[in-house]
Amino acid sequence: MSQFFSEKFRTLEAYVPGEQPQDRSYVKLNTNESPYSPSPAVREAAAREAQQLQLYSDPEVKPLRAALARVYDVKPENICCGNGSDELLNFIFLAYGDRDHGFIFPDLTYGFYPVFCRLNAVPYEEKPLRPDFTVDLSDYLHDPRHVVIANPNAPTGIALGLADIETLAASDPDRLVVIDEAYVDFGAESAVALTKKYPNLLVVSTFSKSRSLAGGRLGFVIADAALIRDLETIRYSTNPYNVNRMSMAAGVAALSEQEYYTANCQKVARTREDAAAKLEALGFTVLPSKSNFLFARPPRISGGELYLSLKARGVLVRHFSKPRIADWVRITVGSPEQMDILLRETEAILRENV
Ligand SMILES: Cc1ncc(COP(=O)(O)O)c(C=O)c1O
Fold first, then answer.
1. Do the beta carbons of residue 137 and residue 167 sit within 8 Å?
2. Using CA positions, which residue lies closest to atom 7 of ligand 1?
3. 113-141 mean pLDDT
4. What would the CATH number be for the domain defined by 18-37+259-352?
5. pLDDT digits over 234-263, tens only?
6. What residues have CB less than 8 Å from 281, skipping those under 6 apart?
7. Binding-site residues, ligand 1, Cβ < 6 A
8. Mutate to test the pocket of ligand 1, among 15, 90, 110 (most ligand atoms within 8 A of CB)
9. Which CATH code fits 40-256?
C-alpha cells in the first residue's frame, strides 16, 4: 500500500476471484464458465466489430438493449447494461446504500456483495442460511433494509421459487429486492416478469454463464424505468462506454441464437444430474443444484484436501475456507468429458484415503 492510498480504503479486503493459473493446462471447473464456446455467429460479429475499434461504443447501448427487450419482453427503458453484472451490482450498492440504509443477504452467497458494501461504505448484515443451506424467507420479510438474493444461490446452487421472490417483493414496497440471476438459465425460474408488477424489484443477469461470454464482460439489469434511470446516472458518472463494441456485437448476436444457448443449458443440466448421481455413489453429499455447478462434500477427506489433491492432478475446483463450508467444494459443470476426468481423479483420491 502506498502512503497516498485513501484512508477509507486502507483496510479494504479486495474480492478474490477464482484462480486462473497459467502454469499448466487444467480441467478448469472452478469459475462457473460455460464449457461451450460462443456460437460461430457471435464470434464473427465480435471479429467484424473489431474493425471499428477506433470508434467509441454507443453510450446508449441501443442495439443490445433493443435485443434484450425483445427476448425478455420488456422495454429498452427497463434495461441497464454493464461491463459484467459485477459492475451493475456495484452500481446498485453505490446507488441505493448509504450510512442509514443498508442491505441484507445470506451469510453464504456471492462473495462480492460484502466487498461492494465495504467499498461503498454501505452497512450490511449477513443472514445465516438454514443448516440445509436453504434461505429462511422470514429473515427477510420484516426488515426495512434492501435485500440481495442470488437465485439460484452461489455456492450452494439451491434456488428459491418464484412465489417466494414475489412474497419478498410484495412484503414492503419501500425497500428494494435485488435478485441476482447469474445462473437462472440452468433450471430456476426468472423473476423478470415480476419487475412489471413490483417497482422495487431489480433483476440482475449476465451473459457470462448460459451465453458463454464470461470473457466478454456483459451484464444487464431489468427493473422499473425509474430505477434504471438511477443506474444510468451512476453509469454515465462512471463510464458511459462501459459496454465495448465487440461485447455489444457479441451480445446482440447471442440473443438472436436462443436455441443454441438453450440447448447448451440443457446439456449442462443433464451433465449436472449425471455427475451429481455419480458423486453421490462415491459417498459425496451433493446439494440439489439448479445452476451450472455442484456444491458437494466428499467422504473421509476435507474440501480443502480434495481441492489440493485434484489440483495436483490437473483438475481445478473451488474451495472456500469459510467455517460452515470448509468441508465442501464447488464444482463447475463442464463437458461430459471434463466431468469424466473429474470423477476418475476423485475416485483415485478417495481410494488413496480409505
Ligand atoms: C452470483 C453471481 N453473480 C454475479 C456474478 C458476476 O458475473 P459477471 O461475469 O457478469 O460479472 C457471478 C460470477 O461468478 C456470480 O456467481
1. yes
2. 85
3. 97
4. 3.90.1150.10
5. 999 999 999 999 999 999 999 999 999 999
6. none
7. 32, 84-86, 110, 150, 154, 180, 182, 206, 208, 214, 219
8. 110
9. 3.40.640.10
